[in-house]
Amino acid sequence: MSLILHLSDLHFGTEDAAVMQALLQLAEQQQPDLCLLSGDITQRARRSQFAAAATFLTRLSAPVLAVPGNHDLPLFNLPARLLNPYGNYRRVFGQALEPEFEDEKLLVVGVNTTRAARHKNGEVSAAQVQRVAQRLEQAQADQLRVVMVHHPVRAVQGSDVANLLVGHEQAVPAWVDAGMDLLLAGHIHLPYMVPLEDSSGRQRAWSVQAGTGISQRVRGAIPNSVNLIEYQSNAGQRQCSIARWDHAREQQRFVQVRKTALQLGRSG
Ligand SMILES: [Fe+2]
Ligand SMILES: [Fe+2]
Question: Would the pTM count as exceeding 0.85?
Fold first, then answer.
């Protein structure tokens, strides 16, 4: 079985120390095989904030794959924003803004949806849509096929429609057609799951949103939250479930609030 810890919107610089400890405890307990970070790792893209994130990640003791969020580009430091927007990000996460992870059971494709010219909203280009689709088509029958971006492709509250990824109308059906199972994202600090359709309207994939993992920037009464994704496949039989774990302040730990077994699309 593969176990993936999906974290988003850690916003180092605004982290809650007690929640961070609770998250490290959860990781220690669950021993994930892989940790995915869907952006907004820092609050203001400062070198010190990335350094704090790096220290945290070494304590997770799992391989980490990340994509940047809008907060990982400097906002007020205009020269840096224009000339080297990913400088501090790359110091910790390396040159690749669109990393991939692959093993026998998993294929994860990272997509950078941030744009230095935009303050907040994300975008996916035609070239990115095509590259990811081609990569998904090369997946093995037993692999869980995951795409990770920062910006959401579906909204469950009217106020989030304006936050949707520009280009999602093209990207989502193309990627589902190409075999995507899960599209992981964050950005709006609201955890939820919504089915995604292929170009003929059949539900074959899932949009999986994570809340903010450890930041004090919670949305209203919604607590800090992370996802644990379980996957196994045997001879073409693929099983996947997603558990949402929320931080419970009184108990000072993360607790599982929901676990959903997912219907996956085609295996080959
Ligand atoms: Fe965020
Ligand atoms: Fe964001």
Answer: yes
